[in-house]
Amino acid sequence: MVRLRHVQPLSQACTVRLANIHHRPNSNNLCTFSAIRPVFTQVPASALEMHQANELARKPPSEISSTDTRKALQLMRSLPKLLLPAQQLSIIGQQVLRLLLSYRNWYVPRVVRGDLPGNPLWSVGVPTPSGGPGGGQLLPLTSDADAFQRLTDGGVRGGADATVVKASISGVDAIREHLHGQGRWEGLTFNPGEEDEFVLDKDQLLQLHMWEATLRCEALMSLELGDSPEPTQPVSDELADLLLGQVKLCFVQLGQDLARDKDGHHIITLTSNDAAALCANAYGGKMVRPVTPQQLLTMADGAEGAFTGYALTLGPDVAPFSDAGGTHIPFWRTCNVPAEL
User: Fold this and answer.
1) What is the largest distance, in Å, between two alpha-carbon atoms of the chain?
2) Which of 64, 65, 174 lies closest to 110, judged by CA?
3) pLDDT under 50 in the chain at which residues?
4) Could you give the count of Cα atoms lying within 13 Å of 220 in the half-sphere of its Cβ?
5) What is the tens place of the pLDDT at every residue in 37-71?
6) What is the arrangement of strands in the sheet containing 198-200, beginning at the earlier edge strand?
7) Could you give the CA distance from residue 23 to residue 320 in angstroms, rounded to a whole number?
8) Which end of the chain is more exposed for a tag (fewer CB within 10 A), N or C?
9) How far is CA 181 from CA 52, 175, 185, 186, in A?
């Protein structure tokens, strides 16, 4: 399992056990913070948009359809018009991003490079809205065959004589294969030229990289850790690298209390942007703070009572959104990870 040692001491003000965190050990490791009262009253969000985002985010990747992606894109485009508080806009946006980047059947245009050995396939891009000739490009992702056909008919061909190939790719792989390094790619454009077109440019690259790491991490946690109550075998190097260096981890703090599960043996650790946004809305933005694995271990070393490891959130919020309004209280499946073997 991930070993977290040799870290510098931190203030122990964040290490007091919080017994009010409720853990449901018989519900596929579901954790909820329902026993905690929000610090202040939140402004109610639009029930319709919150409900839509919640339902979309809970779709398993294998069940996401092109219709779902179009609903998600329309929802993203509507966010500036909703006039909601920033925290609630973040909840909707992050949950929708989870679906868009989890979708496995985006179509990207590629051309056969007959001028290169082996005739490799190269992805074709579209210029950034502010870019000129020779500038950066966005990777076009179309949600269905019709949108792909309209894109290529509109001139995205990579040359008049190029042979265009319709290649299927997931949102995660689109980021991994194109948006790392110093190449020409500056972001993604979903359904370019369509009514639901949506652009994530270089200003959102950091967020895209974080989501790619998170979704890869969740897939590996499900594969390697599953529903085991307390894994005893070391995780793979890839999962360890993601947890230790690429996934943004957060914890929930109320005053001087650090959130743990019901038994107080596992520190609840948020592993995704949507989990952090949901907790910030439910308990206050100042209560959700980024933390490194090394800091978590230091806090655990100074905490009172027994400490076994971390309860890492896994996947989307599985608490159905209530149309009755009020503050939404999220909960998640979790994977328990020992601090050391």
Assistant:
1) 70
2) 174
3) 1-28, 32-45, 160, 341
4) 18
5) 333 334 344 678 888 999 999 999 999 999 999 99
6) 126-127, 137-141, 185-190, 198-200
7) 17
8) C
9) 35, 11, 9, 10
**Entry pTM:** 0.83
In this predicted structure, what is the pLDDT of residue 225?
Answer: 83
Residues 6+ apart with CB under 8 A from 261: 21, 23, 31, 268, 311, 334
Geometric angle at alpha carbon 330, from 319 and 16, rounded to 5°? 145
- What is the per-residue pLDDT across 215-238, written as a single tens digit (0 to 9) for each? 999 999 999 887 666 666 778 899
Half-sphere exposure of 138 (CA within 13 A, CB side): 25
Residue 185 backbone dihedrals phi, psi, to 5 degrees = -80, 130
CB 189 within 8 A of CB 138: yes
What residues form DSSP beta bridges with 289? Answer: 251
CA distances from 137 to 113, 152, 183 (A): 18, 16, 9
Spatial CB neighbours of 233, under 8 Å, sequence gap ≥ 6: 1
